[in-house]
Amino acid sequence: MLEKTDFVFEQVASALGIMPNFSIVITPVIICVEGSNDVHFLIHISKVLHKKEQSFPDINSDPRITVLPLGGSSLAEWVKHRYLKNLGAIEIHIYDRDYEPPAEPEYLFSANSVNQKQDGSVAFITSKM
């Protein structure tokens, strides 16, 4: 009987051709919202969903995810100047639809700019139900 040591596990992994891949990099995700109420909502709802379904991330405790309030009035500047580009993160932007149709959403241009990026980032504009 072999003793459970790192050496034994390394030998078994090597014999089976199973080696850890340290080149796997997990891309961080930044969820960009307008304000602190949006942050609190996302943290709360993710906690509720995580309790129901463990595969859903708990935003408050998952180190891969950051929720960042961009501020309604400065949100367009964040997108225009791409302040987050050097972080190598995927950005998920969620903007409120402040005006009812047929008026265009206030941040439509910013959302379209994010959606045109070729790095996996995406933007959504909410609607009232």
Q: What descriptive keywords fit this protein?
A:
129 residues; alpha/beta; four-stranded parallel sheet; 33% helix
What is the topological layout?
Elements: H1 6-16, E1 29-33, H2 36-52, E2 65-69, H3 75-81, E3 90-95, H4 108-115, E4 122-125
Parallel strand pairs: 1-2, 1-3, 3-4
Helix pairs in contact: 3-4
Give the gist of this structure.
This protein is an alpha/beta fold and 129 residues long. It contains four helices and four strands; from the N terminus they run αβαβαβαβ. The protein has a four-stranded parallel sheet, sandwiched between helices.
Structure, described:
The chain is α/β, with parallel strands linked by helices. The chain has helices at residues 6-16, 36-52, 75-81, 108-115; strands at 29-33, 65-69, 90-95, 122-125. It has a 4-stranded parallel sheet, sandwiched between helices. β1 (29-33), α2 (36-52) and β2 form a beta-alpha-beta unit. The radius of gyration is 21 Å and the shape is elongated. The model has no long low-confidence stretch (mean pLDDT 85).
What's the arrangement of strands in the largest beta sheet?
2-1-3-4
Instruction: Please tell me what the overall shape is.
Output: elongated
Count of alpha/pi helices: 4
Residues in helices, as a percent range: 25-40%
**What is the succession of H and E elements?**
HEHEHEHE
The largest sheet, given as strand count, sense and whether it forms a barrel, is: 4 strands, parallel
Mean pLDDT: 85
- How many runs of DSSP E, i.e. beta strands? 4
* β-strand amount: 15-25%
